[in-house]
Specification:
- The complex is a heterodimer of chains A (512) and B (257).
- Chain A is 29% helix and 16% strand.
- Chain A has 512 residues and is α+β, with helices and mostly antiparallel strands.
- Chain A folds into 2 domains: 298 residues, Di-copper center containing domain from catechol oxidase (di-copper center containing domain from catechol oxidase, Orthogonal Bundle), CATH 1.10.1280.10; 162 residues, Sandwich (Jelly Rolls), CATH 2.60.120.
- In chain A, strands 7, 8, 9, 10, 11, 12, 13, 14 and 15 form a 9-stranded antiparallel beta sheet that branches. In chain A, strands 1-6 form a two-stranded parallel ribbon.
- In chain A, a hairpin with a 3-residue loop joins strand 4 and strand 5.
- In chain A, helix 1 crosses helix 5.
- In chain A, 53% of the residues are buried.
- The longest helix of chain B has 33 residues.
- Chain B has 10 helices and no strands.
- The chains are: A alpha+beta (512), B mainly alpha (257).
- Chains A and B meet through strand 7 and strand 15 of A and helix 7 and helix 10 of B.
Chain lengths: 512, 257
């Protein structure tokens, strides 16, 4: 039997049958004790678990019986972030969760082909939280709707939850390489090569945007206590029923990206195909209904149809592919642009080198932080030459440029900010979308800052593609400047207690 | 889809060559060479009553330092690959060699200081106790340190990758102090294990090989909470087993069929 995941906004009503059955399944899971491996909280703990935070948020009490040590070691705190395993691990997590919900649904007399809907916040008028999740009541007005959680504060921390469409993008789909590198260049569509990574240091492109950003904006934080909303922190995100619809969309975007073979293809490296067990780490392992243990590998997850799943829509975003549009914008003919993009995708290893950096770490508090990134003249000239070569007698692909926010540390995962480059002095960055380098939500920063729990305490590193900003400077004849002026603009004011710092802001060039 | 190059970077080749050369010297000159004062079968090891003064007559401080540096070059080269890669990637291309040498200078400074302390400790111990007892005490100390939270604290710090200034003197300073911090953490993690070759006498080369393999293997583990527990080469063994099954088994099956 094939299962079809559908757009939650297009099911035919706020409480259409798939949502109603989802709510009933969630209610059944929530009724089970924490020690039951198919309970709601057990499944949340598979993503991440922090006893102190769970107690503060009311999800763990002294009366709870904890699962056995073996279950905790096998299943809990597995979520893969900052890793090329991010997408395949979460695909398996969705499938196992769906199986548990479906089991509950069928026992309640629901459809045997029930499948999880997804929330495509990119679609026009579908960026608001689906209504069934926003109300504390069931459709009949009774007040224990299990899809509602109070710890969901939204972009403005006022409880109004939506994803501002001007703050998300699908740029990640334009990268033909699944695997990236942690060397300052592209982190790849799917993330960097790591071992088992409950919290790697460099997030992949799709993971950074829209994944992290939607987590941070939907979850927000309690304006009174500064405690994170459930979605904002990896250790609580799986407790929010909207988490699963968000990840349904991320999983769908993986499938959208794969529609463009042979370039946009999953890794064939045995270390990816066979998963973390191949590099001496914990295999992916999840509990299924009936006490069955399911072990899987990334290779198992690569082909969705082999898993008997389809999405109702995997069409690519409208418009010309970004890489072709870029080359044409720089003066290449359409034919040359298409030819070069093909050669870029199949090219060998890229050269990555530092182009510039700021001089000292910065703190992000309040409503803005600024710094200047000094550029090395010799490397800047290499970049200019690579762009100029595009319109020369033997066109070659120009460099891509990446802004790195290195060693981002702090204690509040709900922190989210936008990064602008070279906004004219005295002007509002919001009026200069052409200067927007990207958006960063610090999903996972707290654990990455606290040394000793699978982390060395170095924080996270975010990589933003600022090629479009450098291209614009080149076309305007101002790439010869010695500095780039970087402004970090938080979505919500950052309290001092969040202790957000950025160790270094740097710029790297990557040959195509 | 990108093809990943498997060709090692020149700096990795240079590092491997340095390590190999150091191991070669240690192996070839085993009969005469005294890696550290009490490793030699020819000098102080033979004398159960060796005192600190006597040992220093046999082996001048300069000789001891040179021997210790040779040991470091042989044993620690694999451990600096990961932090050196960080320095390489986060520095301007034109400054990479300089930054990496400064990192190594800091790393070596930390380890040479630790080496002086360890050799004085070894000499003092040997002046008071017979060799087999010294080796036993060293093994006990290594075991106690191996299971301690303090060892994990040092290992966690070995995994740190700090931000590095990019330009001029601050870049030099950061590279050197990163090396110093990493070397200090490495010495903190490995000091007790390094006592074993010092007391191993004629078996010092074999002990050095064993300790090198062990410390490289344990460094593959990620950072972890501080706790009393055994730390061993489990992950390294799992990697070897998994990679053998993954890459060699299909070829063997192919060859057989």
């Amino acid at each position: 039997m094939a299962f079809t995941r559908k757009n939650v906004w297009e099911l035919g009503g706020d409480w259409a049958d798939p949502i109603l059955w989802y709510a009933r399944g969630v209610k059944a899971m929530k009724a089970r004790p924490l020690s039951d491996s198919t309970s709601w909280r057990f499944y949340g703990a598979i993503h991440g678990m922090d006893q102190g935070l769970w107690q503060q948020l009311g999800y763990l009490s002294a009366n709870d019986q904890m699962p056995g040590d073996t279950d905790v070691q096998n299943y809990w705190s597995q979520c893969q972030h900052g890793s090329w395993y991010f997408l395949p691990w979460h695909r398996g997590y969705l499938i196992a969760f769906e199986a548990v919900v479906r089991d509950a649904v069928t026992k309640l007399g629901g459809p045997a082909d029930w499948a999880l809907p997804y929330w495509n916040y990119f679609k026009l008028n579908e960026n608001a939280l689906p209504p069934a999740f926003a109300s504390p009541n069931w459709p009949d007005g009774t007040g224990d709707n299990p899809l509602f959680v109070p710890q969901r504060y939204g972009p403005n921390n006022d409880g109004n939850v939506s994803v501002p469409v001007d703050q998300i993008n699908l740029s990640a789909l334009g990268d033909p390489d699944f695997t990236g590198s942690a060397n300052g260049g592209s982190p790849g569509f799917g993330g960097v090569d790591t071992g088992f990574s409950h919290g790697g240091q460099v997030h992949g492109e799709l993971e950074t945007q829209p994944h992290d950003w939607v987590h941070g904006l939907v979850g927000g934080s309690d304006p009174q206590t500064n405690l994170p909303g459930l979605m904002s922190d990896p250790d609580t995100a799986g407790l929010d029923p909207i988490f699963w619809l968000h990840h349904g969309n991320i999983d769908r975007l993986w499938e959208v990206w794969r529609q463009n073979p042979p370039t946009d293809a999953d890794p064939t490296d045995p270390n990816w195909v066979n998963g973390p067990a191949a590099v001496g780490d914990h295999a992916f392992m999840l509990p299924m209904p009936g006490g069955v243990n399911w072990t899987y590998t990334p290779g198992d997850m690569s082909n969705l149809s082999n898993l008997n799943y389809v999405y109702d829509d995997v069409s690519p975003p409208a418009g010309a592919p970004q890489a072709i549009a870029r080359l044409q914008g720089l003066g290449a003919s359409p034919a040359a642009a298409r030819s070069l993009v093909g050669s870029i995708a199949m090219a060998g290893p890229k050269t990555v080198e530092l182009m510039g950096a700021n001089s000292q770490s910065i703190r992000l508090t309040g409503t803005e932080a600024r710094t200047a990134v000094a550029l090395d003249p010799a490397v800047r000239q290499k970049v200019a030459a690579s762009i100029n070569s595009l319109v020369g007698p033997a066109p070659s692909a120009p460099d891509r440029i990446f802004l790195n926010l290195e060693n981002v540390r702090g204690l509040n995962d709900a922190t989210a900010f936008r990064v602008y480059v070279n906004v004219p002095e005295g002007e509002d960055p919001a009026r200069h979308p052409e200067c927007l380098a990207g958006s960063v939500a610090l999903f996972g920063v707290r654990k990455a800052t606290l040394a000793g729990d699978k982390h060395a305490g170095d924080g996270l590193t975010f990589v933003l593609d600022i090629t479009h900003v450098i291209d614009a400077l080149h076309l305007a004849g101002t790439l010869s400047a010695d500095q780039l002026h970087v402004r970090l603009v938080p979505v919500r004011p950052v309290p001092e207690a969040a202790q957000i710092s950025i160790g270094r802001i740097s710029v790297f060039r990557q040959s195509s | 889809m990108r093809r990943i190059s498997r060709r090692p970077a020149p700096w990795l080749v240079a590092l491997a060559a340095t390590s190999l050369a150091a191991w070669s010297v240690l192996a070839v000159d085993r009969g005469e060479f005294t890696p550290v004062v009490l490793c030699s079968a020819a000098s102080a090891w033979a004398s159960v009553s060796a005192s600190l003064d006597l040992a220093l007559v046999f082996d001048s401080p300069a000789r001891l330092a040179a021997d210790w540096a040779l040991m470091l070059a042989a044993m620690m080269s694999p451990l600096v690959v990961a932090p050196l890669r960080h320095v390489h990637e986060r520095s301007f291309a034109r400054r990479r060699a300089r930054a990496m040498l400064l990192f190594l200078a800091g790393y070596a400074a930390a380890w040479m200081s630790a080496g002086a302390c360890l050799q004085v400790l070894a000499l003092a111990t040997r002046s008071m106790a017979p060799a087999p007892l010294c080796l036993g005490l060293a093994a006990l100390a290594a075991l106690a340190w191996q299971v301690s939270p303090a060892k994990q604290w040092c290992l966690n710090r070995c995994h740190r990758r700090p931000p590095l200034a990019a330009f001029a003197a601050p870049a030099d300073r950061d590279a050197f102090f990163f090396g110093l911090a990493n070397g200090g953490a490495c010495a903190g993690a490995c000091w007790a294990l390094m006592l074993l070759p010092l007391f191993a006498g004629p078996a010092h080369l074999a002990a050095m090989v064993a300790v090198t393999l062990f410390v490289c293997a344990e460094r593959l583990e990620a950072a972890a909470p501080l706790a009393w527990r055994w730390r061993g080469p489990g992950k390294a063994l799992r990697i070897v087993a998994a990679q053998a099954a993954m890459r060699l088994a299909p070829r063997l099956r192919e060859a057989v069929s």
